[in-house]
Design brief:
This protein folds into 2 domains: 47 residues, no CATH class; 254 residues, Rossmann fold. Helix content is 40%, strand content 13%. Strands 3-2-4-1-5-6-7 form a 7-stranded mixed beta sheet, sandwiched between helices.
Length: 317
């Protein structure tokens, strides 16, 4: 059961959390009538937003077997983990599209966006996957948009993400587990693309930064090999120049990694890069805030759709 401590202690709040827990445990799948919330104190509003976020929880572990799946694999470090706060989700993103799911790497099952074990452990903080999935779900209403996210704060491309290294092995295993589940259910699927938000930790030392370009090429090449898609669309967020401001860490070679990312994107017609320099961060000048996570996810979605359209145009001239 999720740990709800720290979100309020009023009687109304406790009742709301009780209902959410019942939904999570499969004991309820409908909400208390909205009229019950009319007299809520303004301090309870974040709790109300969280409650609406869980309206889809009655379908935990369920995936529509009648819809084909468009699957996207996500990787990176802490800005892919995400530090967006659930209670700060804009109104349009509180309730997620019914044709969107995420893979719970721990429980090995499909769950609604933002409710997997990793998100739960982090008090339901979110990354770019939320807005990204909304964009794709709107574009493909007859498909299920499925995301499989594998990320780890502080991980380095040269040390953790190259073929045979721990994060990459986990990344592939999580993808395979999700695909095996779809195969077992008889659901048709297509691996449609990859999102990548990483590189901050490789900017700590010049040697690591100088190796980033070739390492990133190696990663992308192997992902395409493992997915059997030589033209797999990849959208990455470029690390922010804000890392050169005062942070709890040392990112002295941010510009070297940025340049490496730019060169990889420029040399690969199936890679698009997003400039994050103007995105607002938390006080640590490193991690994107809630609004920035929404902006990044939305931008990633639009860039991904453009890549998919471009690939289809070349396949069907």
């Amino acid at each position: 059961m999720p740990n709800w401590r720290g979100y309020g202690s009023s009687i109304r709040t406790l009742l709301l959390w009780r209902q959410i827990n019942m939904i999570l445990e499969g004991k309820a799948n409908t909400l208390i009538p909205i009229s019950n919330y009319i007299k809520m104190n303004i301090k309870d509003f974040p709790i109300l937003k969280l409650l609406f976020f869980f309206t889809a929880m009655g379908c935990v572990g369920q995936i529509d077997t009648t819809r084909p799946v468009k699957l996207f694999i996500l990787g990176g470090q802490s800005n892919m983990d995400g530090t967006g706060k659930l209670e700060e989700l804009p109104e349009d993103y509180i309730v997620h599209p019914e044709n969107s799911v995420t893979w719970d790497n721990k429980k090995k099952m499909w769950v609604p966006l933002g409710t997997d074990s990793f998100a739960e452990r982090r008090k339901f903080k979110f990354g770019p996957e939320i807005a990204f999935s909304h964009e794709l779900a709107k574009k493909y209403p007859k498909h299920t948009i499925a995301v499989v996210k594998t990320s780890g704060g502080g991980t380095k491309l040269w040390k953790h993400w190259l073929p045979g290294q721990p994060m990459y092995v986990r990344f592939l295993q999580n993808m395979e587990n999700a695909l095996e589940d779809l195969k077992g259910r008889g659901i048709s699927y297509e691996i449609c693309g990859m999102l990548w938000m990483q590189g901050e930790s490789d900017a700590e030392f010049l040697e690591w930064a100088n190796a980033y370009e070739e390492n990133l090429k190696t990663l992308y090449k192997d992902v395409r090999l493992q997915t059997a898609k030589n033209d797999l669309p990849i959208v990455m967020g470029r690390i922010s120049i804000g890392l050169l401001r005062k942070t709890p860490w040392n990112f002295d070679y941010t510009k070297v990694v940025q340049a490496a990312q730019d060169r990889v994107a420029a040399a690969d017609r199936n890679v698009r890069i997003i400039n994050t320099d103007k995105l607002e961060t938390l006080k640590d000048n490193t991690h994107f805030n809630s609004e920035s996570n929404i902006w990044l996810g939305k931008k990633m979605g639009k860039r991904m759709l453009a890549l998919i359209k471009n690939n289809r145009g070349k396949a069907n001239p």
